[in-house]
């Protein structure tokens, strides 16, 4: 939580920097969507002053939802920076915080935000601790996760429950294609739940192969995973 609070402060600081730059150099082009997505991140610190926030396009979000968006942004930025090898510089943190704010603002709508609180997803990974921050970003919006660490456990859970989507890693249990094994087994059983593969690779070949098997997407990027999940709501 301490790290997330630091990221929230960093996002707010970026917003203030943009405001100062725009004041000092009024002719400098700063697009409206950038200001909007950074503005939404600073609003949780101004809670006593607002009840609703109106986004571009006339969409209104209650302040409670705005806090969810800010928490999701902070967790997504943390997930993205955690994937860097070596030292994470302040420049990298700032870039990832801004990118996360843009991803969340573009992916979240009033409709899917409401649906998120009713969504239960199955996440299959033999090392679930590797995805804590990614889950936290989505949990901030109200999504609930059920975890499975093996293909067989996942199939048992799918037999007994209905999920909004399934997220799976690729290799596990000595099966380098376990992600496809689970997906193929689901389809053979008539389970057509949306399926997303979140693995170490993001090569075009893997993306194409995943779609041939019937997956919605294949990625190793937290921001793309976030977008894919929001598409399923």
TrEMBL record:
Keyword Zinc: no
Modified residues (4-aspartylphosphate): 169
SUPFAM superfamilies from the UniProt entry: CheY-like
Keyword Transmembrane helix: yes
Keyword line: Membrane, Phosphoprotein, Transmembrane, Transmembrane helix
Transmembrane segments: 7-26, 32-50
All residue ranges annotated as the Response regulatory domain in the record: 120-233
Any GO BP: phosphorelay signal transduction system
UniProt xrefs under Pfam families: Response_reg (PF00072)
Protein name: Response regulator
Organism for this UniProt entry: Thiothrix fructosivorans
């Amino acid at each position: 939580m301490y790290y997330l609070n630091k990221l929230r402060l960093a996002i707010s600081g970026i917003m203030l920097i943009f405001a100062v730059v725009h004041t000092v150099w009024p002719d400098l082009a700063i697009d409206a969507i950038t200001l909007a997505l950074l503005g939404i991140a600073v609003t949780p610190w101004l809670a006593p002053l607002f009840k609703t926030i109106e986004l571009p396009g006339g969409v209104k979000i209650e302040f409670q939802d705005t806090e969810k968006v800010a928490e999701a942004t902070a967790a997504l930025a943390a997930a993205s920076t955690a994937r860097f090898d070596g030292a994470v510089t302040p420049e990298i943190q700032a870039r990832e915080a801004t990118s996360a704010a843009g991803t969340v603002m573009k992916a979240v709508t009033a409709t899917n935000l409401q649906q998120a609180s009713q969504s239960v997803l199955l996440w299959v990974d033999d090392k679930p601790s590797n995805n804590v921050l990614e889950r936290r970003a989505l949990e901030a919006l109200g999504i609930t996760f059920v975890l499975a660490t093996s293909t067989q456990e996942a199939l048992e859970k799918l037999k007994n429950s209905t999920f909004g989507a399934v997220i799976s890693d690729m290799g596990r249990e000595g099966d380098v294609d376990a992600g496809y094994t689970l997906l193929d087994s689901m389809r053979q059983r008539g389970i057509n739940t949306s399926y997303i593969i979140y693995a170490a690779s993001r090569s075009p070949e893997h993306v194409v192969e995943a779609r041939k098997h019937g997956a919605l997407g294949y990625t190793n990027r937290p921001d793309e995973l976030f977008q894919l999940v929001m598409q399923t709501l």
